[in-house]
Design brief:
Keywords: Immunity, Signal
Strand content: 35-45%
Number of strands: 8
Organism: Oreochromis aureus
GO cellular component, one term: plasma membrane
CATH architecture: Sandwich
Largest sheet: 4 strands, antiparallel
Protein name: Ig-like domain-containing protein
Structural class: mainly beta
Shape: globular
Strand order of the largest sheet: 1-2-7-6
GO biological process, one term: immune system process
Number of helices: 0
CATH superfamily: Immunoglobulins
């Protein structure tokens, strides 16, 4: 069997600076580091920030070698909501000029991918209810 050191350069996660949401704001969403190399079993942290007033949601995506896009979770203000089934955590803040961090736990060969963050406006949906009045005869 092959050892971990033989896979040292095959077990990396490549991260690119490519926000997905609101193309006109591409220069106002920042992701670091630009790339990173890690061994299996380690963890990786990717930071995202933005400077878009009124935006308080950060979305995280993973794109595999086959170009398949996976939604990893999101953060609203300071509450992280990772999707189940992924070994990730989301910490920090999604407010402007703050940092939201995607933490990828216990890296494996399948962790090698391009990771994207996107800033998004969070709108509140108001729940409406109707009242039905009886007809008068």
């Amino acid at each position: 069997s092959e050892t971990l050191t033989e896979h040292k350069y095959d077990t990396f996660s490549k991260i690119k600076l490519l926000p997905l949401d609101m193309i006109k704001f591409h220069d106002q969403v920042f992701q670091t580091p630009a790339n990173m190399y890690k061994n299996q079993g380690q963890r990786a942290e990717i930071n995202c920030s933005h400077s878009i007033a009124g935006y308080d949601r950060i979305l995280w995506y993973k794109q595999t070698k086959s170009k398949q896009l996976h939604f990893l979770g999101y953060m609203v203000v300071s509450q992280g909501a990772p999707e189940s089934g992924w070994r990730v955590d989301i910490k920090g803040s999604a407010n402007p000029h703050q940092t939201c961090t995607l933490i990828i736990k216990d890296l494996t060969l399948n962790s090698s991918a391009v990771y994207f963050c996107a800033a998004r406006y969070h709108s509140t949906i108001y729940q409406c209810s109707s009242i039905q009045k009886p007809l008068h005869s």
